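Record copied across here:
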Amino acid sequence: MMRFFVLFCVFWLQFTFSQENIVTEKNKIKGRELAKRRNQVYDSLTMNFEAIVNDSLVKDKLVLEKANEAIGSYFYRVYPKYTFGNYVDLKRILEALGYDFLHASIDEAIKNELYYVFYKGNLKSEEGIKTFEKKLFNKLQLEKVIQLEKFSTYNVSIINSLLIKSVERDYKNVFDQQENRLYFSGKIKQFVNALNGFFPSKIFLIENSDEEHLYDINIDVSSLEKCLEEMKFLGFVIEEKTEMLQHTYFKLKSK
């Protein structure tokens, strides 16, 4: 009976490994076929765009299509005669036009859409940018609304604190996505720089009396408000600076 059981186990393991190998091989074939199809589509796109670039009768032309899957690598490149973007969002396109997204927002309904975009025209000239923007907004049915809004930044300094000096001598910057907390070890200046990865151009260190020691800091970065609240508890002195600045909204036109 034991011998039969051992033989059965050996047979089952062989069968399982055989099935896994078959599945793995099928997945490899599917992967190669998918890559081949994507390369064919990408080659077709580039050939079509090259033809437009070389057509002297076409002065400017915009091609913009939604991208349902990645074809080739993600990129957005601006050349003197044309611009070509593969699998890019509207934010990336508008950043290349000079918009600062600290002071600009995109309608949530279109914010995460991805596109293949081609434009024959010079986006390195002011006139070319105006023409492209007009065509882009017409294509997407977008409008630009500019409003004056309060924009706050925070100057921070530290004199007396509840910070814990680190026993480690190495820099550490770990973000816990589930808890939305930053686990940091390093100098005060490095800590403030790390916070600006979460809240760009919002927090500035204006006084730092300790450039020597490293500290262990565990702080909530789920929101700017919670982060500042915990910084105050740790002994940071925070001064809010507020000014009225123009904020640009890119909104879908109401039908």
About this structure: DSSP finds six helices and twelve strands in the chain. The CA atoms of residues 89 and 218 lie 33 Å apart. The chain has a mean pLDDT of 83. The helical segments are 2-53, 90-95, 108-111, 126-140, 188-195, 224-234.
